[in-house]
Specification:
Homodimer (via N-terminus). One of its GO terms (biological process) is malate-aspartate shuttle. Keywords: Acetylation, Calcium, Membrane, Metal-binding, Mitochondrion, Mitochondrion inner membrane, Repeat, Transmembrane, Transmembrane helix, Transport. One of its GO terms (molecular function) is L-glutamate transmembrane transporter activity. This is EF-hand domain-containing protein. This protein has two domains: about 1-160, no CATH class; about 165-450, Mitochondrial carrier fold (Alpha/alpha barrel). It has 22 helices and four strands. It has about 525 residues and is mainly alpha-helical. The chain has helices at about 1-15, 25-35, 40-45, 45-50, 60-70, 75-85, 95-100, 110-125, 130-135, 150-160, 165-200, 220-230, 240-265, 270-285, 285-305, 315-325, 330-355, 365-380, 385-395, 405-415, 425-450, 485-490; strands at about 20-25, 60, 90-95, 130. Helix 13 packs antiparallel against helix 14 (about 270-285), helix 17 runs antiparallel to helix 18 and helix 19 packs across helix 20. The strands form two sheets. Strands 1-2 form a two-stranded antiparallel ribbon. It has a two-stranded antiparallel sheet with strand order 3-4.
């Protein structure tokens, strides 16, 4: 307020003729001298062009006040825009739409809206305002807005060219670590479901093996594992799974973010085809880690079905298979993981955007829901490929059908067991994959918030800027602004402020009848 009063006094000094106006150059000098911290490079460049509107080169006192009020209210301007655009960054609104939305708040005058659209048209005449225009006009000082737009713009425009190789490597290690921990938490949380899914998919229904139908359904399988192998039988093969989850999740998240970053448009959006491409690349890149991990895990999971014979360990499985044997069924793994990620990541991105609040943030509960919902179609649609991969990677026992490659496996399953066999374990797969990815991503999000490190680059997905605000915006009440709650906070203790020592009066107690 003192700065505003200083600016008003400067206006009065320049208005020597007492006409209530100053020249455009005087207006620019006042703003640059008195309020430079509120001027972005764009606004400073356009001060003369914007002076007095598009019809005059004289700046009236009302326009001067409106211009300064607009700069002070840019955080509220952004909030009004958010009520219209939601979580999208590419929406442009008309002046009429903006004025109607601003009426809910009551703190923005029509003149301020006119100046806002006038400044936006100086950049590109189109009669609309988007988030890019607001960021171009908004003061960039730390804490000047609830969302630190200077930090967002620095990340989007700086790129890797302004950062050293050491910083980029440190950022990759940081993401790798968070992805590893999040992946391990997600895998452990749903591992019993994964074990049941594997045993159901490996169960033949062609009658080629005596007593092959050990389990009636997934629930029956779960009960029998606990009964005959104990509670920890549900976690058979967990250790190699955790050892492989770290690089698998890290490379999947890294490749997806990398491709999305390379295909991102200027407005911050990613086209749908680019999202599918990024997900497919992420799924394909993870197979180098996933396939050895899966084949060892699967053989350990089904080993518990046979109680006789030597104990099977991860090292014994690796020795028996050899290096090339660890990549048995890799084609089926590609056939499963590429479509899965191509479906999952776009679904997750759009579901997460739909669940964002009016400030563009997603809470842990909504993030978990977004991950779970996106996993349902992705997990169910690739179940046939998962069944083929499981059959190829499991060690066939005496009397069981053997398969010679992906095509041979497909035709034998179709001929001997019918089309329904390709959907075995679909329920368990959806029941496992949906919560697993939900838990993984919510863990990843929370780790980024708890152990945040700024490397000066693009923030990992889900790491929203910390809200910073100088004021507490009142709730949009159509009847009044602020209300008694804000009035009490404003005048609390005023009797002893500013060197005053006034007596305090208390309302007399109402006498009881």
């Amino acid at each position: 307020e003192m700065q505003l009063e200083h600016a008003r006094q400067a206006f009065a000094q320049r208005d020597k003729a007492r006409t209530g106006t100053v020249t455009a150059l005087d207006f620019r000098d006042i703003m640059v001298t008195i309020r430079p911290h509120m001027l972005t490079p764009f606004v400073e460049e356009c001060l003369v062009a914007a002076a007095g509107g598009s019809t005059s080169h004289q700046v009236s006192f009302s326009y001067f006040n409106g211009f300064n009020s607009l700069l002070n209210n840019m955080e509220l301007i952004r909030k009004i825009y958010t009520t219209l655009a939601g979580s999208r960054r590419d929406v442009e609104v008309t002046k009429e739409e903006f004025i109607i939305a601003a009426q809910r708040f009551g703190q923005v005058t029509p003149m301020e809206v006119d100046i806002l659209f006038q400044l936006a048209d100086l950049s590109e005449p189109r009669g609309r305002v988007g988030l890019v225009d607001i960021e171009r006009i908004a003061p960039l000082q730390e804490g000047a807005l609830p969302y630190n737009l200077a930090e967002i713009q620095r990340q989007q425009s700086g790129g890797d060219a302004s950062r050293s190789v050491l910083i980029q490597v440190a950022e990759s290690a940081y993401r790798f670590t968070l992805g590893s921990v999040a992946g391990a938490v997600g895998a452990t949380a749903v591992y019993p479901i994964d074990l049941v899914k594997t045993r159901m998919q490996n169960q033949r229904s062609s009658g080629s093996f005596v007593d092959e139908l050990m389990y009636k359904n997934s629930i029956d399988c779960f009960k029998k594992v606990v009964r005959y192998e104990g509670f920890f039988g549900l976690y058979r093969g967990l250790v190699p799974q955790l050892l492989g989850v770290a690089p698998e999740k890290a490379i999947k998240l890294t490749v997806n973010d990398f491709v999305r970053g390379k295909t991102m448009q200027k407005d911050g959006s990613v086209p749908l085809h680019a999202e599918i491409l990024a997900g497919g690349c992420a799924g394909g890149s993870q197979v180098i880690f996933t396939n050895p991990l899966e084949i060892v895990k699967i053989r350990l999971q089904v080993a518990g079905e046979i109680t006789t014979g030597p104990r099977v360990s991860a090292l014994s499985v690796i020795r028996d298979l050899g290096f090339f044997g660890l990549y048995k069924g890799a084609k089926a793994c590609f056939l499963r993981d590429i479509p899965f990620s191509a479906i999952y990541f776009p679904c997750y991105a759009h579901t997460k955007a739909a669940l964002t609040d009016e400030d563009g943030r997603v809470g842990p509960g909504r993030l978990l829901l977004a991950g779970a919902l996106a996993g349902m179609p992705a997990a169910s649609l690739v179940t046939p490929a998962d069944v083929i991969k499981t059959r190829l990677q499991v060690a066939a026992r005496a009397g069981q059908t053997t398969y010679n490659g992906l095509i041979d496996c497909f035709w034998k399953i179709l001929r001997e067991e019918g089309p329904r066999a390709f959907w075995k374990g679909a329920g368990a797969r959806v029941f496992r994959s949906s919560p697993q990815f939900g838990v993984t991503l919510v863990t990843y999000e929370l780790l980024q918030r708890w152990f945040y490190v700024d490397f000066g680059g693009q923030k990992p997905a889900g790491a929203e800027p910390t809200p910073k605000s100088r004021i507490s915006l009142p709730a949009p009440n159509p009847d009044h602004i602020g209300g008694f709650r804000l009035a009490v906070a404003t005048f609390a203790g005023i009797e002893s402020k500013f060197g005053l020592h006034l007596p305090r009066f208390r309302a007399p107690a109402t006498p009881h009848a």
